[in-house]
Amino acid sequence: MKNALVCGAGGFIGSHLVARLKREGFWVRGVDLKFPEFTETLADDFVIADLREVENCRDIIDRRFDEVYQLAADMGGAGYIFTGANDADIMHNSATINLNILDTCKKRNIKRIFYSSSACMYPDYNQTDPSAPVTREDSAYPANPDSEYGWEKLFSERLYLAYNRNFAMQTRVARYHNIFGPQGTWTDGKEKAPAAVCRKVAEARSGGAIELWGDGEQTRSFLYIDECLEGTLRLTRSTFAGPVNIGSEEMVSINQLAKLVMEIAGKRLAIKHIPGPLGVRGRNSHNQLIQKMLDWKPSQSLRKGLEKLYPWIEEQVSATRGSNSHARPAAAAFKPFTGVAAERSNAS
Ligand code: NAD
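That is the input. Now the predicted structure with nicotinamide-adenine-dinucleotide docked in place:
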């Protein structure tokens, strides 16, 4: 029986990945600071541990795993990574995890390691036109990500590729573009646009209004979790190191995303635009390289994925309705941060 280690197995993508690997017959160890929030883990062994501590990494990586998936990171949606308030934590925590995991794997002679980088590492200056953003893999340099989160991803993807070159490790690097689906964060300030929009629509009364950050004309593409996992496994088991985009090419504005969710929900709502953290003006996945190297690219429509996400969010909203237990970021009280990250995102 093959075995795999999933770091970040208590998170959104990690918990789905554990389930997928179990379906394939793997013995799976998961590790995270927390158990998955919305489901029981399917891992054979789940360790609660802080991967910033190298001793913990040594204890957890106690055998020669066939596949290691490194998804653990200090991350969140725009409300977490673009305010500037979390920059030091984001850089320090995620870089430390990556340094520890990679070096411990090397010492155990583990070869095959997947690393989840992000489209946030692409330069700000190529993403100012919402109708034609550039995210070809070879457009990464000269580097100028719009957040410290993106800079850390860029550093770490280079780290994984350096271990590949210098120590003959089979590291694989993907640049994920906005992954979404059920069982992801939907309300604690770290949620991404699809979950946030679904929550706002689910909470609104028909005929009411929802609030969107900015003018809603910023563009993005969103990839459903099942397709993300398919791409991840194909890349990990291929001979191609990457970095390569794993994302959808179906670009929409945030206003269009909101209208699509309203259609699915069967609700007519007004949109009120308010100040909030935004990130780059436009972003879309560019899938030529993945198609060429893996003979595959994601194909499922955004609508199909949202049709699975919306009912799940509606269920969460119904379950918490009447209680004030879920905290939300105070968007209306948002004050632009005057530091480096905000200057970059405001420039976009
Ligand atoms: P997530 O926040 O749900 O999962 C990350 C997990 O890492 C969390 O469960 C967290 O507790 C864990 N973690 C953080 N610090 C840790 C530590 N010190 N020790 C152990 N565990 C720790 O995020 P996700 O959406 O599942 O993303 C997984 C990976 O994919 C991340 O590396 C993220 O940067 C990357 N990524 C995700 C997206 C997306 O749209 N979801 C896009 C681009 C890149």
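The first helix runs from residue 12 to 23.
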